Amino acid sequence: MAFRLLLSCLFSLSSGFSAEISVFVQTGDSVQLDIQTQELPEFDDLSWKKDKSENIVKYTSESKRVRLHSSYKDRVDFNNKTFSLTLRNMQKIDSGIYTAVAAAESDNNIVTYRVSVIDAVEAPVLTVNSNSSSPNPCNSTCNGSNIIISFIYDSSSCSPEKVTSSDNYILRLSCNGDSIMCNYSNPVSWKTDTKKVNELCTAKTGTYCIHSDL
Ligand SMILES: *[C@@H]1O[C@H](CO)[C@@H](O)[C@H](O)[C@H]1NC(C)=O
Ligand SMILES: *[C@@H]1O[C@H](CO)[C@@H](O)[C@H](O)[C@H]1NC(C)=O
Ligand SMILES: *[C@@H]1O[C@H](CO)[C@@H](O)[C@H](O)[C@H]1NC(C)=O
Ligand SMILES: *[C@@H]1O[C@H](CO)[C@@H](O)[C@H](O)[C@H]1NC(C)=O
Ligand SMILES: *[C@@H]1O[C@H](CO)[C@@H](O)[C@H](O)[C@H]1NC(C)=O
């Protein structure tokens, strides 16, 4: 809460400047960074910088010359009309702060992005308890590599339904009729596993009794 308040204060103090925009990119994918404004202040040159140091691209307004950083030039597109920057084949090492700076008598930050490059999630593994003698046959487990939940199926609904990890990975369950779906997601991807519910859990009490008598 305090953090959110602080952010909004910073935002209102720096009116005219943009707040940081958070972007998640899947490893190997491209990302397009736009300047997010129609009206640029007058400038001599415009650059896209990574972590305030490397100039990925520098565009000089008088000569219209575009200069690309040697280590980016094979995987970068700069649009000389919209000034947007497209980076291809993003890797985790490319995570960081990207800023568009228009320079005249002084530098003017146009937009700042916080780019996070993360892998797609691995498929979750849903294991349905099929042991009719276990104390709770309706207890099942879904394993999404960095979150594991054990849950109870109770007349078409699951409990708990959702667990979120600190780094934005989410494991979400939906129990519907005789099937359970486990959906494992992060900001760039999602994968699911679906299984039939243990028949003991969908059956009426009477059926359950007959079953256990056998
Ligand atoms: C923009 O880039 C295109 C393609 O490289 C080029 O043909 C064009 O002359 C450039 N325009 C300006 C204004 O620099
Ligand atoms: C089933 O559950 C019972 C009670 O927990 C246990 O004794 C038995 O070994 C389990 N059977 C299997 C196949 O896991
Ligand atoms: C469900 O099963 C898991 C693994 O067998 C166990 O760790 C968990 O405590 C069980 N939960 C309940 C409510 O029985
Ligand atoms: C959950 O999945 C991960 C990754 O596949 C595996 O390393 C781990 O042993 C699994 N945990 C359980 C309790 O099955
Ligand atoms: C899985 O979760 C993601 C993220 O919440 C969602 O976009 C997607 O539609 C879900 N998939 C299914 C099959 O429900």
Automatic annotation (TrEMBL):
Cited Pfam families: V-set (PF07686)
Protein's UniProt name: Si:dkey-53k12.1
Positions of the Immunoglobulin domain: 20-118
The organism's place on the tree of life at top rank: Eukaryota
Assigned keywords, A-Z: Glycoprotein, Membrane, Signal
PANTHER family: NATURAL KILLER CELL RECEPTOR 2B4, SIGNALING LYMPHOCYTIC ACTIVATION MOLECULE
Record-linked SMART domains: IG
The keyword Signal is annotated on this UniProt entry: yes
Signal peptide: 1-16
InterPro entries referenced in this protein's UniProt entry, alphabetically: CD2/SLAM_rcpt, Ig-like_dom_sf, Ig-like_fold, Ig_sub, Ig_V-set
Gene3D superfamilies: Immunoglobulins (2.60.40.10)
GO cellular component: membrane
Localization (cell): Membrane
